[in-house]
Amino acid sequence: MHTENSIVMHAPLEKIFETAADLSLWPKILSHYRWIRYIEKSPTKNVVQMAAMRSWIPVQWTSEQEIDRNGMQVRFHHLKAFTKGMDVVWTFTPSHDGVEVRIRHDLKPTIPLIGRFVAEKIIGQFFISHIAGQTLAHLKRYVERTYGA
Questions:
Q1: Which of 82, 94, 63, 92 lies closest to 123, judged by CA?
Q2: What gap in Å lies between CA 87 and CA 51, rounded to an integer?
Q3: What's the half-sphere exposure (Cβ side, CA atoms, 13 Å) at 103?
Q4: Helix/strand/coil (H, E, C) string of the chain?
Q5: Using one digit for the tens of pLDDT, what is the confidence trace for 100-148?
Q6: Per-residue model confidence as pLDDT tens digits over 19-44
Q7: Which among 23, 87, 121, 133 has most CB atoms closer than 10 A?
């Protein structure tokens, strides 16, 4: 399963990156996030439990986050739940239009009963792509209002 979501933001690259990387902000600025709990915390690597809503459906997972300031990437590796084994990469690309923020999700299902259809349509499109789209839209609104270029 592979999904990608992207959006162009109009704020300084560094502010967008640091806001996206700071998971403690997410429940405050992303209305669909219920909570984030740190299991391990450092400046470049964290293990967190995350909880969000997909419409009226609560979802949660455990993930390892890696913050790569030199490469301008934020990476996640899901450790538990239906998305166990999923790799997520956030990239931040400056352009003449602003900063393109892209979230890429890749998952090879580890649960035998989850076939390609379930992975692509239900996990990928219904849950992941929808939540990632909301995340980008709310992040854009926040950084443009707070740091707008």
A1: 82
A2: 17
A3: 22
A4: CEEEEEEEECCCHHHHHHHHHCHHHHHHHCCCEEEEEEEECCCCEEEEEEEEEECCEEEEEEEEEEEECCCCEEEEEEEECCCCCCEEEEEEEEECCEEEEEEEEECCCCCCCCCHHHHHHHHHHHHHHHHHHHHHHHHHHHHHHHHCC
A5: 999 999 987 655 555 555 556 556 565 788 889 999 999 999 999 999 8
A6: 999 999 999 999 999 999 999 999 99
A7: 23
Closest residue by Cα to residue 124 from 149, 102, 104:
104
Whether residue 64 contacts residue 46, with contact meaning beta carbons closer than 8 Å, is answered with yes
Written as one letter, the residue type at 50 is M
Closest CA to 109 of 138, 83, 140: 83
Angle at 17 between CA 13 and CA 126, to 5 degrees: 120
- In the structure, what pLDDT confidence band is assigned to residue 75 with cuts at 50, 70 and 90? very high
* Joined tokens for residue 10: 């109009």
> Which residue type, as a one-letter code, is found at position 74?
V
